[in-house]
Amino acid sequence: MSEIRLESVSRIYGRSFALHRVSLRLRPGALTAVVGDNGAGKSSLLNILATLDKPSDGEVYFGEHTWATYAKKGRHKIGWVSHDSLIYAELTGRENLEFFASMYGLDNPGELSKTWLERVGLTDAADRLSSTYSRGMKQRLTLARALLHKPSILLLDEPMTGLDQAGRTQMTALFRQLCAEGCLLVLVTHNLSMLQDLADHLVVLRRGKLVHDAPLGPEDDILDIYRQHA
C-alpha cells in the first residue's frame, strides 16, 4: 500500500464545514491517531477515507488513485471498524466470520475464521452465539471481521471500547504487528492514554481544521500536545 494524501480536503453539510481544507499524509507501516473534541471532524475524515463520503472539495489520493477511482476499484482493500459492529446476533462467532469470508469470496473460510478467532482471543467462545458475547468480545469479533480479507488500510473508530486491560494489551500487540506487515492504520479515539505506546503519528482536529500533524517520539506527551491544540 502506498501512502494516502489529502490535499485541501473539505466536507460540507448544508452551510457547515465538517472538514475545512485539510491536507495530510498517511503512511503505510504506521498507526496514525486522530483526536479532537466532539464535532472536530474525526468521523467525517474516517468516512472519506473509507470511501463512504465524497469530499466536497479537494482531493484524496490513495497512492496514485483519486478518491473516485479508489471508491470503485479499491474499497475491498479497506478494513473498517465503526460503532456498528455488523455482527449477526443469531450466528456464532465462527459462523459470523465464515459468512463474511464467503461474502468476500475468500478461499478456506473455515481455516481463516479459525485463525482470526485465535488471533483475537475468541477460540474458546467460537461456537457460542454472538448475542451472548460481552461488549469487549463483540469488539474483538468485529476486528476479526474487518481483518479477514487482509486489508492494506485499517480504519478504527474507538477500537478498544469494552475491552479489559488484557484485551487492550492484546489488541495493541496486534496493531503493532499489522504495522510491521505494512498495513496503514488510522485510529480515532477519545482515550488519549491508550495512544502513548501505540501511535506513531498524531493528528489533532479542531472544528474541522487540522491544528496538529506530527510524528510521535518516545518523549512526547500526547495529553500535553492535545491540551495545546484541541
From TrEMBL:
It holds the Pfam family ABC_tran. CDD domains: ABC_DR_subfamily_A. It is an enzyme of class 3 (hydrolase). Keywords: ATP-binding, Hydrolase, Nucleotide-binding. Its EC number is 3.6.3.41. Gene3D superfamilies: P-loop containing nucleotide triphosphate hydrolases (3.40.50.300). GO terms for biological process: cytochrome complex assembly. PROSITE patterns: ABC_TRANSPORTER_2. This is Heme ABC exporter ATP-binding protein CcmA. It comes from Bradymonas sediminis.
